[in-house]
């Protein structure tokens, strides 16, 4: 730790630097001046240091200068005038510098430092702090109006700027000698600035001391003249890029990050929050602000529409619908690659956006994708009350107390007060669930779905923000009751969450037992609430100012004990209310809603209507969350179970059929959707929704189903297998011979059924190219066909393989099945669905096709191709072009659970050009070789 002196004009940020050092172990002098409104965290100046400098200045100021004691930090000193020490002052300074390490701060040091220099240790560092001259001038004027000891001093804007210029001219003249660090006020609120101070100080510093909420207003206009010249030079020395204050709208190019801020009835704090984002030091245009007003009636809408934003911003208005709904509106408008979710009481440190961008870049460099969670700190002024000081370091509200920067956490830490994540992942997860209406859990629900996509939460303490929300007893109680009830709705949507270690204590609990406990402790609860209400009002700082530190500590400890017991009772009340709302008596019943496998509960003999209602809710949750394939398969299983066990439940059966029809129509299977709706009408001819949907579907034009396997095979053959003048064998019913001949094939042999290839009695080594139009993937045993292909293909000839799962296209009856249906549904469920959508005859045909269809894994196919005489280096695994054909995280878990040791189900297709091994090596283009035959 090196000794330091801190220079800068008054109201420039020197107190923040000195306070940071004082909190880190530096000595600033005995009995520093107490905090007051102008500097709520303290001045970190002492009467002794200021008194020495007052005497030094009093000796050199003109006789007519009218300054009372304590006012000379606002004087100006003529060039060439230097204060001098006498023996008395020298002795006082020498006594001060005996304390090591020291950090002396006083604006007067800008003038008096040369007098101190001979007595300072040789390695003493000089820290110059500054900010915009116009903003400093405004702050000086306010201090002169508010501080009684300055009442006699005449001050105006011109005079304040004159003081600023005089002080920093002196500083820059002295900076020609010694070791200096220049730091802008805003840099002290950023990680980079604190890094620079820490390196200069040669010791760790307390990075929590600087607070975004203490940032003073910026000057609305440049100071002009010499002040601006000096400010530019100071910024250059500090390596600080001054923020351009230009009025802008939305930039044309998409930003790297979109800040999504939703608000309702909180205009005052919203203005502060927006100002904190307008003061970001990230490059202009690198981020945008998307503000969503959720139907406020307190003047918020009018203020937003009139506000001239200093950053690219969009303002959206909507009727009140809750936070999840508002955030989804913001999501639709956001253009950034990354999304940063904040609250309307989030006060951002100037480098918040830049730190989020930095964190994502560092994670990406390490091959990691994650959500990034920043801090949500209470301003120091809030920590005066015992309740707020306890909550800052306890788990009742936020659980930052046990988190370490750079560590990864699960979805329970996905808090949208200050968290960023890739926009594409949020949309892939399905956005916010708007059924979460009250406070709590809409963010954790999204975090859970993001985690299923592989994104955990990385805590990055450098991304700092303040929480401008002072909680009292009543507001804390309302929050806990709402939050606990919301968690039950989370469990209803994701019953497996009850297996999480955080919720193991709920095992065996139910609404009745919790309410019985609450009744038995009613008197105790009233006493606890009375005690907490009293303790919450205790002002710890008042006690500490009186020297009653032990009493303050005791009050804080007792509050923690009372709140711990009371919070458990509040949660039981909220949980019981939540259970009532979701229609369950116990958490065990809630857990039974999600069996160990997705469909196991539907196949049990004990299947009940409660299971059916829970499964229908899961169908809708999964569909809304992007798991449309799993929702479809679950709906099929549920429809089959209801038909078998509850045929009289007409309303429930029609709901399931209607949902299933919508899912199939969204997947492009119009024929199946039509058949399902017709069946729903048979079950309930009077159902108006079914009749309207059926009429709309019948009026819609039919869309042709694609035939991707044949199309892809032909394109691949044309590009890679040189069909020009080649002798070609096509396996499959397409393309038509004329299309094959149009690409220049010398001759073409078509075999619609590969298993009949041997019956064609082709000569050995008589073909140049064999093209699989997607037929091999449908064979239960492709080995005989592959060996016949190798026989008729000449050595060095090529085989174009297009091996895709047979349910990915419409080339056969299997194309009418939902993706992955045969891997998760049992025969009874498949029979119910196919009979419903295809009719008995085609359903029986499909059952036969399924029975003989190939179920080989990719690795087994590659081995078989190698054994049959093909070089397999040209094969590659491919996923479908349409991402919707890939299993979502939840579906993938069910597939892996049902098929242990199988592939990962994300690249089930193989394609490529294989070369037939043999003694003859073909060098060069196949077409040229074929032309020489």
Explain what this protein looks like in three dimensions.
The protein has 933 residues and is of the alpha/beta class. The chain is built from 35 helices and 21 strands. β15, α28 and β16 form a beta-alpha-beta unit. The protein starts with a strand and ends with a helix.
Highlighted features:
alpha/beta; disordered C terminus; eight-stranded mixed beta sheet; 21 strands; seven-stranded mixed beta sheet; 35 helices; 933 residues; elongated
Short note summarizing the structure:
The chain is built from 35 helices and 21 strands. It has about 950 residues and is an alpha/beta fold.
The secondary-structure class comes to: alpha/beta
Query: Outline, from the CA principal axes?
Result: elongated
Question: How many beta-strand segments?
Answer: 21
Which spans of ≥5 residues are poorly predicted at pLDDT below 50?
214-220, 244-251, 919-933
Question: Radius of gyration over alpha carbons?
Answer: 37 Å
Walk me through the topology.
Elements lengths: L3 E4 L6 H10 L23 H14 L26 H10 L6 E3 L3 H8 L8 E6 L2 H14 L10 H18 L4 E6 L6 H11 L23 H14 L18 E7 L3 H12 L8 E7 L6 H7 L6 E5 L5 H11 L4 E5 L3 E3 L3 H14 L5 E3 L12 H7 L15 E2 L8 E5 H7 L12 H11 L4 E3 L5 E3 L5 H21 L17 H10 L1 H15 L3 H6 L3 H34 L4 H5 L17 H16 L3 H18 L4 H17 L3 H14 L4 H12 L8 H13 L6 E5 L5 H6 L4 E5 L15 E6 L10 H10 E11 L17 H4 L2 H12 L1 H13 L5 H10 L2 E2 L3 E4 L10 H10 L10 E8 L9 H6 L2
Parallel strand pairs: 1-2, 1-3, 3-4, 5-6, 5-8, 6-7, 10-13, 15-16, 15-17, 17-18
Antiparallel strand pairs: 8-12, 9-14, 10-12, 11-13, 18-21, 19-21, 20-21
Helix pairs in contact: 5-6, 6-8, 13-20, 16-20, 17-20, 18-20, 22-23, 22-24, 23-24, 23-31, 24-25, 25-26, 31-32
């Amino acid at each position: 730790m090196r000794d330091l002196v801190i220079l800068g004009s008054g109201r420039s940020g020197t107190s923040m630097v000195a306070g940071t050092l004082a909190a880190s172990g530096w000595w600033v002098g005995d009995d520093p001046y107490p905090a007051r409104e102008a500097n709520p965290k303290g001045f970190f100046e002492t009467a002794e240091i200021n008194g020495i400098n007052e005497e030094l200045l009093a000796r050199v100021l003109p006789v007519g200068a009218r300054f009372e004691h304590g006012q000379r930090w606002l004087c100006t000193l003529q060039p060439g005038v230097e204060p001098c020490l006498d023996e008395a002052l020298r002795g006082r300074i020498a006594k001060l510098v005996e304390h090591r390490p020291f950090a002396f701060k006083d604006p007067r040091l800008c003038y008096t430092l040369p007098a101190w220099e001979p007595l300072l240790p040789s390695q003493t560092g000089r820290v110059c702090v500054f900010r915009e001259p116009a903003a400093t001038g405004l702050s000086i004027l306010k201090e002169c109006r508010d501080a009684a000891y300055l009442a006699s001093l005449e001050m105006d804007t011109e005079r304040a700027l004159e003081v600023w210029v005089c002080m920093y001219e002196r500083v820059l003249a002295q900076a020609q000698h010694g070791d200096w660090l220049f730091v802008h006020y805003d840099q002290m609120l950023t990680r980079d600035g604190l890094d620079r101070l820490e390196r200069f100080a040669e010791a760790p510093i307390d990075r929590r001391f600087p607070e975004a909420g203490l940032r003073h207003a910026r000057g609305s206009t440049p100071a002009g003249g010499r002040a601006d010249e000096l400010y530019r030079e100071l910024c250059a020395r500090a390596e600080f890029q001054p923020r351009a204050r230009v009025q802008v709208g939305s930039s044309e190019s998409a930003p790297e990050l979109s800040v999504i801020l939703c608000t309702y009835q909180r205009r005052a704090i919203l203005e502060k929050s927006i100002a904190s984002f307008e003061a970001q030091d990230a490059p202009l245009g690198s981020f945008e602000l998307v503000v969503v007003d959720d139907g406020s009636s307190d003047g918020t809408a009018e203020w937003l529409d009139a506000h001239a934003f200093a950053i690219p911003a969009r303002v959206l208005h909507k009727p009140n619908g809750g936070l999840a709904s508002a955030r989804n509106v913001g999501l639709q408008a956001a253009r950034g690659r990354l999304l940063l979710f904040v609250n309307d009481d989030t006060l951002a440190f100037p480098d918040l956006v830049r730190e989020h961008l930095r964190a994502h870049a560092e994670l990406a460099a390490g091959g990691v994708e994650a959500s990034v969670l920043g801090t949500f700190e209470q301003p120091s002024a809030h920590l005066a009350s015992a309740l707020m000081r306890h909550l800052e370091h306890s788990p009742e509200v936020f659980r930052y107390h046990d988190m370490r920067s750079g560590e990864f956490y699960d979805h329970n830490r996905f808090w949208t007060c200050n968290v960023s994540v890739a926009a594409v992942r949020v949309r892939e997860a399905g956005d916010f669930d708007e059924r979460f209406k009250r406070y709590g859990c809409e963010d954790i629900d999204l975090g859970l779905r993001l985690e299923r996509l592989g994104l955990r939460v990385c805590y990055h303490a450098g991304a700092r923000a303040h929480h401008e929300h002072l909680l009292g007893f009543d507001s804390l109680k309302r929050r806990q009751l709402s939050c606990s009830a919301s968690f039950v709705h989370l469990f209803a949507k994701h019953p497996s969450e009850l297996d999480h270690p955080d919720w193991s204590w709920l095992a065996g609990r139910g609404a009745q037992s919790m309410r019985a406990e609450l009744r038995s402790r009613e008197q105790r609860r009233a006493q606890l609430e009375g005690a907490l209400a009293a303790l919450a009002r205790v002002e710890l700082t008042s006690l500490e100012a009186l020297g009653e530190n032990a009493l303050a500590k005791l009050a804080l400890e007792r509050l923690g004990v009372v709140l711990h017991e009371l919070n458990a009772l509040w949660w039981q009340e909220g949980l019981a209310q939540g259970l009532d709302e979701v229609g369950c008596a116990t958490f065990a019943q809630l857990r039974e809603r999600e069996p160990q496998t997705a469909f196991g509960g539907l196949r049990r003999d004990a299947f009940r209507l409660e299971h059916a209602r829970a499964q229908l809710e899961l169908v809708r949750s999964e569909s809304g969350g992007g798991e449309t394939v799993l929702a479809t398969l679950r709906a099929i299983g549920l429809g089959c179970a209801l038909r078998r066990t509850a045929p009289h439940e007409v309303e429930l059966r029609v709901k399931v059929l209607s949902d299933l029809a919508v899912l199939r129509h969204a997947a492009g299977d119009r024929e199946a959707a039509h058949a399902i709706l017709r069946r729903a009408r048979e079950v309930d001819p009077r159902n108006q929704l079914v009749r309207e949907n059926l009429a709309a579907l019948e009026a819609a034009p039919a869309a042709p189903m694609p035939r991707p396997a044949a199309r892809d095979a032909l394109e691949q053959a044309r590009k890679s297998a040189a069909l020009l003048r080649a002798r070609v064998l096509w396996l499959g019913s397409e393309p038509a011979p004329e299309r094959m001949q149009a690409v220049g094939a010398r001759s073409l042999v078509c075999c619609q059924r590969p298993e009949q290839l041997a019956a064609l009695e082709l000569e050995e080594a008589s073909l140049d190219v064999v093209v699989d139009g997607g037929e091999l993937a449908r064979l239960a045993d492709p080995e005989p066909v592959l060996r016949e292909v190798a026989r008729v293909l000449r050595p060095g000839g090529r085989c174009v393989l297009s091996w895709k799962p047979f349910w990915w296209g419409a080339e056969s009856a299997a194309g009418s099945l939902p993706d992955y249906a045969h891997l998760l549904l049992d025969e009874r469920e498949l029979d119910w669905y196919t009979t419903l959508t295809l009719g008995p005859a085609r359903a029986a045909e499909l059952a036969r096709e399924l029975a003989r269809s190939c179920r080989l894994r990719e690795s087994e196919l590659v081995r078989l191709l190698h054994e049959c005489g093909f070089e397999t280096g040209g094969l590659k695994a491919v996923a479908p072009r349409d991402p919707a054909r890939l299993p979502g995280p939840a579906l993938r878990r069910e597939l892996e659970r049902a098929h242990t040791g199988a592939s990962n189900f994300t690249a089930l297709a193989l394609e490529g050009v294989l070369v037939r091994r043999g003694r003859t090596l073909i060098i060069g283009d196949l077409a040229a070789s074929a032309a020489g035959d």
